Amino acid sequence: MYDEVPTNSLLYSLSLGNYGMNVPMGQYDMPIHQKIFLAQFEAIQKLADKGEGCVIIGRCADYALAKREQVINVFLRADPAARVKRLVEQYSDLTEKKAADQMVKTDKRRASYHNFYADTRWGSADSYDLVIDCLKTGIDNTVELIAAYADMRFPE
Fold first, then answer.
1. Are 47 and 30 a contacting pair, CB within 8 Å?
2. What is the pTM of this model?
3. Which residues pair with 133 in a beta bridge?
4. Could you tell me which of 6, 12, 31, 33 has the C-alpha nearest to residue 21?
5. How far, in Å, are 77, 78, 119 from residue 81 at the CA level?
6. What are 40-54's pLDDT values in tens digits?
7. What backbone torsions phi and psi does residue 118 show, to the nearest 5 degrees?
8. Between the CA of residue 36 and those of 54, 66, 153, what are the distances in Å?
């Protein structure tokens, strides 16, 4: 319910019971979505501190790891019509209209979340090292492309 949800919506805040009462915003008084963001930020930092390779999808990981050198930020994109087709194939209960609506809402939610917390723009090519149209390359080739880029960028 709280996964990658933007916090700048008044209606959303009201639905969570954040009525703007005059209480200090210490960690214990912080809205749950803010606590979750901070916990994810800390978990991402701890993973990076281990020095092992990992893949993190979403969660403003680019922002959490912005000061680290051995990071590759990748944005996977695809043509909206192809994405809708894939959703309909994956989920038999979705019509094309429902899939398209769900896709637009999800993209807006992700962009709003990312743009609220991070200092980069979600989906903007200049915010990423690679932007790949994964429907053109396919899943396996996309993985190989990212791995080849990582090998070239960080040969050690």
1. no
2. 0.76
3. 77
4. 31
5. 12, 8, 29
6. 999 999 999 998 888
7. -95, 165
8. 20, 19, 32
**60-103 pLDDT per residue, tens:** 999 999 999 999 999 999 999 999 999 999 999 999 999 999 99
151/67 Cα distance (integer angstroms): 20
Q: Which long-range contacts (CB under 8 A, 24 or more apart) does 63-66 make?
A: 63/117, 63/118, 63/119, 63/120, 64/40, 66/119
Q: Identify each DSSP E strand in 51-141 by its residue range.
A: 74-77, 130-133
Contacts of 124 (CB under 8 A, 6+ apart): none
Q: Which residue has the tokens 């990748």?
A: 74
End-to-end Cα spacing for the chain = 40
